Amino acid sequence: MLRVDVAERANWKTLAHELGFHFHTIGGEPYWKESAYYQFSLDQIERDIEAPTEELHEMCMELVDRVCHSNALMQRLALPEFMWDTIHDSWVSGQPHLYGRMDFAYLGQGHAKLLELNYDTPTSLYEAGFFQWVWLEQAIQQGIIPRHADQYNSIQERLINAMAHIGDRLSSAEMYFSCIKDNDEERATVHYLQDVAVQAGLKAPFIYTEDIGYQRDGDYFIDLDNQPIQALFKLYPWEELADDAFGEKIPQLHTHWFEPPWKAILSNKGILPLLWEHFKGHPNLLPAYFEERSPSPLPPGWVRKPFFSREGSNIELLTPEGQREAVDGPYTDSPWIRQAYHPMPRFGEHHALIGSWVVGDRACGIGVREDVGRITKDSSCFVPHAIV
Fold it and tell me: What is the model's pTM?
């Protein structure tokens, strides 16, 4: 695994705007970075990332089944009780899911270590599935990278196939797509998924999450024209959706959700200690434990994470050498876990995190994020990769 400095493509920012990638710069700082790329061998991809991703995914599915049949585990994960039956029913009825991302620390040799799961509202999908593939093709054409270079990336193909499979199960072959207002990254992700859905033969109207409504005697959530929303992809966390004013309506109505309610189990960092309890010693897992709500000093060599957290918020770590890092955020009213600290590879000032994508139930590509800090945040740069 190498970080290779290369030239940028001429006029790539113009191309990014033409392709809807409007958040390539965030707050005046680069988010997309192509002055370098991460280089892997085929063995590293297939043996150390792809195979463990699929094995861990199957382990996660086994745990979902355990949790769905145990009110005690539902309670242990702090899932709202009024959602328990809905979560259970969505699993036992076989409601399909679309995608997820596992985040790994991987040093280029040895075992990749699972840091966390992003299985409900993962972002960086557009960058990983589409824009870095465009970079690969053009970088080869322009002589920036070797002509025989490849990329571990069948994300878009898998998404189209998964959408087509989902469409076969929907009575109307229509799925609404939704995100909150005033968030360019989330809107771009959802727009990308709408395009994928259309390629798969679905109708894919858009509605902002804030504009979704319901009627007192209706069977479904409704759009602004009072039309029923029979199926809905929402880029909005299950734990926040359940806390919203209409959250109590979710079990009462028949709208089919993507991701399905059972994904609330895997978007919860409490899944990490459960994985360790049931598969203790697995080479791709790190020791992880539930923590009492009362804060206590963090010992060296551990990371403290809230159950419900996004993009690095409210994570605190203390390295074995005593170096402390923390990110502020809104997720303070939550149970916590502790996970053993494992270093990410460092290239100069950059710590690199590998996001391994699962679509349906298949591993299908990666994206690399880097940051000067040890905690990956929403502003951490996305850097393309290649297999050479």
Answer: 0.95
